[in-house]
Structure formats: structure tokens, C-alpha cells
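pls design
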């Protein structure tokens, strides 16, 4: 019998000798295979008719059903309730197309949409690789790509949940990869395309919009850049973004008679997290559709009036209990990065995976911080997009409520920094990155006339 260690070394050497495209193809195949195995195991749960097929996409599934049955973008809960902007349109229309082709809530529809999600998630390995390679070198890039392929949360949220996580992850990671290189580009068409692609990502999940200005500012103020053309091209990128978002904004105004660029559900998320009653249990089910009382209020008052009431209640709570709101917010910050919520026995019985998830999340955060520190010490310009992303993106969730789902759009960048942290513990030095003959070479452009190269 062959020595397993020797066989493993042979396979590793064979893999490393292959071209980047071959390695990424193998990696994508492995990632997709793992996700499809999970898809096959969750279909019975996904198509279960419990709570009006809630597990089949929740609000997104109900709106997609409405579209597929000819009632338009409406009814975000199972009763008919009129036009809505509670969910973003991109994934919702994709799911509606699947429903129209294979029927609402059927097994074939479940296999199809979860397989599509799995493909999106597996393909995310590509922008993960190239964005990490640009900032940290090839060795960290390959580790990050494998990390994403095998990452349990990436597998679960793409293969077991009917939601936009995988689509948003692919689009936003691609935008992040392009943003790293944006200051090298003078072409107006490139900047216009970046803005347009970012608009598409926002139609999948508008939370990514918070860092769009950051990416433009980083490009404008990159060392050696001419501010005049950087500002001009940023305006072109903004026009590209607006051009993509404008049609949906017009639709929302015509349907709801209020200005809603993409979605309007912020206050419905904010009130359960700041009502002073459900915080300790992290129970955010006191809203439609899980609360019959709230569901009836939503139907009776209408979406806009219901959200206005949630806004008034939230602001009143913050005004009357500012210290409690600060306490809740700090707790959410801690939970976002550690997975910790409560050690109360009743809570742990209701959430049996809380402890292992907490240790896993803490480990990821520690390695992420180690990787961020290493990158900052070696190349501040390369580190800034990552650090600003981590600092700004979670803010809306700090103010409302946090669950692991809400980290999905930035998880690829977190995995990249985790990879850098792992390599730094293995005494991975900058010199080894520079000695790598396959390391991406960044061209000298008008933004780098001094000859400086980012590592």
C-alpha cells in the first residue's frame, strides 16, 4: 500500500505545477461538488409546506411566487398585500423565473435555484483569488480561494438557503477586485462599467452601497494619481451606478408613492432589535410574518404606514433609552465578530449550535486581525480597502440586529485576511511573495509614475 503522505506530496506538487486557470478550474469543481452534495440533502426541508413554504425563500419566495403567478412584485408575506419594496429585485426575479419554469415551491425549482446559488458561490473563488493575489501575493491567494471553497458558512448559505447570499457574494467580490485596480485605469468606459456592475450588486443587496464612496475615494487619492481625472472618472462611475438603479427607483415611486432607491425594510429590521423586549433572547420574530398580530397590522395599514410606525417606535426608544441603545449596539458589535449572544440556558437550548459557532467565529476573527495587521505593516495602500470595508459595512447591522447571514457579502474578504493571518503564523515573509515568479505584476500607469508598486 502506498504511503499516504507520499501520495499527498505527489498530488500537491502536481497541483502546483499546473497553470493558474487549471488550478482554479479544479478548485471550482471541488467547491461546486461539495455544495451540490448539500443541495441534495436539504431539498425535503426546503419544499416542506410548513408556514406557507417559509423555508423556500421567506419574503423573497413569496414575492417570487406573486411574480410567477402574474400578480407582479408584491405580497412579501403569504397573504396578498399589494406592491412592495421590502426585498431587492435581482435575486427575486431570478427565483420568479425558476418558479415560472418549474412551478412554485416544487422540488425541481428547489434543486434548480440552490444549484444556481452553488454555482455562484463556487465561481466566487475566482475574484477571491485575484483580489487576494493583488494585495498579498499568489500563495495567500491560493489559500484564500481554497478557504472559500471549503468554508462551511459559504457552503451552507449557498446550498441550503434560498436567498441572495451567493449572488451578492459573487458580484460584490468582483466589484472589490476591480476597485483595487481602479486607480490604474484612465478609461472612462472602465469606470462606467464599474459603476454599472456595482449597481447590479446593489440590486442584489443594497447594503453594499455603503462602501461604494469609499472605493471611489481610495481610487482618487491613490499615491501618484492625478486628482482631476480621478474625480472626473468617479463622477462617470456614479452615473453608471445611477443609470442601473434609476429604473427600479422609478418603479418603487410609481408603486408605493415614496422615494425608495432599492428597498424600504430598514425600520422593520431596526424595531425588533431595539424594542427592549426581544433583545436578550435575540428573538426577532415579533414582526410579520411570524407574528399574526404584526401581520394583520401590516395588511391593514399598508407597507409604508407600517414602516413609518416602526420608525417612530425605534426613534422613540432610542430617545428615551440612549444608554440602553448604546449597550445593545455594543453587544451587537461583539456578536457580529464573535458569534456570542448569550450563555443563558434557555437560549442555548433554543440555539444548540451557538457554542461551536462562537468558537469558530472567534477563531476566524483572530486570524483575520492577524492578517490585517500583517498586511497593514507591509503595504498600507493594499490594506486600506479591506480595513475600511470591515469598518463601514457592518454599521447598519450594529444598529439593528445581527445574525451570521449578515456577514455573507464581506466573508470572501474576511477569508482573504484569514489566509494572510495563517501564513504569517507560518513565518511567511514579504520576500517570499516578491520572489514568487507568478506574482501578479502591476503595470506602471499614470497613477504610479514614481515607480512604486503595491505588494
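designed seq:
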Amino acid at each position: 500500500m502506498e504511503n499516504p503522505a507520499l501520495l499527498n506530496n505527489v498530488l500537491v506538487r502536481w497541483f502546483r505545477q499546473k497553470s493558474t486557470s487549471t488550478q482554479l478550474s479544479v478548485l471550482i469543481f471541488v467547491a461546486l461538488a461539495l455544495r451540490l452534495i448539500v443541495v441534495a440533502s436539504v431539498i425535503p426541508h426546503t419544499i416542506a409546506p410548513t408556514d406557507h413554504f417559509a423555508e423556500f425563500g421567506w419574503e423573497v419566495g413569496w414575492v417570487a411566487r406573486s411574480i410567477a403567478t402574474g400578480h407582479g412584485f408584491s405580497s412579501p408575506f403569504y397573504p396578498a398585500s399589494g406592491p412592495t419594496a421590502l426585498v431587492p429585485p435581482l435575486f427575486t426575479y431570478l427565483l420568479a423565473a425558476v418558479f415560472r419554469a418549474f412551478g412554485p415551491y416544487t422540488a425541481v425549482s428547489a434543486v434548480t435555484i440552490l444549484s444556481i446559488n452553488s454555482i455562484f458561490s463556487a465561481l466566487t473563488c475566482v475574484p477571491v483569488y485575484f483580489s487576494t493575489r493583488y494585495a498579498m501575493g499568489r500563495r495567500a491567494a491560493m489559500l484564500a480561494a481554497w478557504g472559500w471553497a471549503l468554508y462551511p458558512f459559504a457552503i451552507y448559505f449557498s446550498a441550503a438557503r434560498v436567498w441572495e447570499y451567493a449572488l451578492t457574494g459573487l458580484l460584490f467580490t468582483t466589484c472589490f477586485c476591480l476597485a483595487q485596480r481602479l486607480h490604474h485605469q484612465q478609461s472612462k468606459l472602465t469606470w462606467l462599467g464599474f459603476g454599472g456592475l456595482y449597481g447590479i450588486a446593489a440590486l442584489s443587496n443594497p447594503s453594499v452601497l455603503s462602501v461604494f464612496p469609499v472605493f471611489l475615494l481610495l481610487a482618487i487619492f491613490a499615491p501618484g494619481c492625478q486628482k482631476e481625472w480621478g474625480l472626473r472618472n468617479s463622477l462617470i462611475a456614479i452615473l453608471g451606478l445611477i443609470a442601473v438603479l434609476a429604473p427600479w427607483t422609478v418603479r418603487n415611486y410609481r408603486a408605493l408613492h415614496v422615494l425608495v432607491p432599492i428597498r424600504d425594510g430598514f425600520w422593520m429590521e431596526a424595531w425588533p432589535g431595539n424594542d427592549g423586549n426581544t433583545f436578550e433572547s435575540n428573538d426577532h420574530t415579533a414582526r410579520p410574518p411570524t407574528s399574526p398580530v404584526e401581520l394583520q397590522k401590516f395588511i391593514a395599514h399598508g407597507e409604508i404606514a407600517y414602516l413609518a410606525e416602526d420608525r417612530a417606535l425605534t426613534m422613540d426608544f432610542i430617545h428615551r433609552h440612549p444608554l440602553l441603545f448604546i449597550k445593545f449596539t455594543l453587544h451587537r458589535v461583539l456578536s457580529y465578530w464573535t458569534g456570542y449572544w448569550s450563555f443563558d440556558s434557555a437560549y442555548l437550548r433554543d440555539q444548540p449550535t451557538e457554542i461551536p459557532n462562537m468558537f469558530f467565529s472567534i477563531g476566524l476573527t483572530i486570524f483575520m486581525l492577524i492578517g490585517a495587521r500583517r498586511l497593514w505593516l507591509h503595504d498600507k495602500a493594499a490594506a486600506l480597502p479591506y480595513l475600511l470595508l470591515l469598518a463601514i459595512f457592518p454599521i447598519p447591522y450594529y444598529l439593528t440586529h445581527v445574525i451570521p447571514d449578515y456577514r455573507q457579502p464581506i466573508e470572501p474578504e474576511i477569508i482573504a485576511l484569514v489566509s494572510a493571518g495563517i501564513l504569517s503564523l507560518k513565518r511567511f515573509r514579504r520576500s517570499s511573495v516578491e520572489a514568487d515568479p507568478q506574482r501578479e505584476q502591476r503595470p506602471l500607469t499614470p497613477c504610479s509614475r514614481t515607480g512604486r508598486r503595491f505588494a
